[in-house]
Design a protein that fits this description.
Blueprint (H helix, E strand, L loop, with lengths): L20 E5 L3 H7 L4 H22 L3 E8 L7 H24 L2 E6 L7 H14 L5 E9 L1 H17 L10 H6 L11 E4 L18 E4 L9 H12 L10 H4 L2
Parallel strand pairs: 1-2, 1-5, 2-4, 3-4, 5-6
The chain binds farnesyl diphosphate.
Length: 254
């Protein structure tokens, strides 16, 4: 069986506060391929290999929830060929790499408008979720046909129907109720979101959930974003003063 990654790595978490919940926008596959005069599909393939590596690294560092942006509700606007290749790659990835994910104790879940995906992809999702449901080390949450606005829209619709039926009064709607009606309410909001490839955008990713996320932006293109930079992002995150709109404990005591 192939082994995930081959470089010797040190997962030293002594004194390192690793995010429990991490989000990653896997951007830059196309530019990675272009730089090498390769087709975009080769960039996505390299991106998929790197996702496998990220899963292993996050699991070993002690991340509990890793949410990755694989396909947005806007990505349908890409050429039909590219969309088709991406869908095939998703299916291939989970068929091919599940034994390695299993070895690492990684449960696979999906978030997004899953019902609108092609049948073969929905089948892969159902199988992947079912066979991995008892794995305990980390959850890999794949955002597929995901849009933050669509997720909020779906939550609002669920709540509105409860208002319509008289079960909930409009005044009773709270932030918590909205969180509870998102696609995966049990998944904690990401403490850190990593966006490679130098773009300073959220691109409709986890809009509700990112209210107090920290961000790590890097110029590295996704297929090249490896262990060293992940470690650097975690070190930086560990040193951040997260005030959630309040004061730091140092300021509060003066
Ligand atoms: C954005 O880069 C990337 C995507 C739209 C696809 C992400 C998919 C993968 C990393 C493949 C593996 C995923 C799974 C779940 C197996 P881009 O193509 O927009 O890059 P560019 O901005 O450089 O053109």
């Amino acid at each position: 069986m192939p082994v995930l990654g081959n470089k010797k790595k040190t997962y030293d978490t002594t004194g390192l506060k690793v995010p429990v919940s991490l989000g990653v926008i896997m951007d830059g596959n196309g530019r990675w391929a272009k730089k090498r005069l390769l087709p975009r599909s080769a960039g996505h393939r390299a991106g998929a290999e790197n996702l496998k590596e990220l899963c292993r690294n996050c699991g070993r560092y002690g991340v509990k929830y890793l949410t990755v942006y694989a396909f947005s509700t806007e990505n349908w606007a890409r050429p039909e060929d590219e969309v088709h290749q991406l869908m095939e790659l998703f299916v291939e990835f989970f068929e091919k790499y599940d034994p390695e994910l299993e070895q690492e104790g990684i449960r696979v879940r999906f978030t997004g408008d899953i019902a609108s995906l092609p049948e073969k992809v929905r089948e892969t999702i159902a199988i992947g979720e079912e066979r991995s449901k008892n794995r305990q080390k980390m959850q890999l949450i794949v955002a597929m046909n995901y849009g933050g606005r669509r997720e909020i829209e779906s939550a609002v619709r669920k709540i509105a129907s409860r208002v319509k039926s008289g079960e909930v009064e409009p005044e009773e709607i709270t932030e918590q109720m909205i969180s509870d009606n998102l696609y995966l309410p049990d998944v904690p909001d990401p403490e850190l979101i990593i966006r490679p490839s130098g773009e300073f955008r959220i691109s409709n990713f986890l809009l509700w959930e990112c209210a107090y996320s920290e961000f790590w932006i890097s110029d590295t293109l996704w297929p090249d974003f490896g262990y060293d930079e992940l470690t650097q992002a975690f070190r930086d995150f560990a040193g951040r003063d997260r005030r959630f709109g309040g004061l730091s404990s140092k300021e509060a005591s003066t």
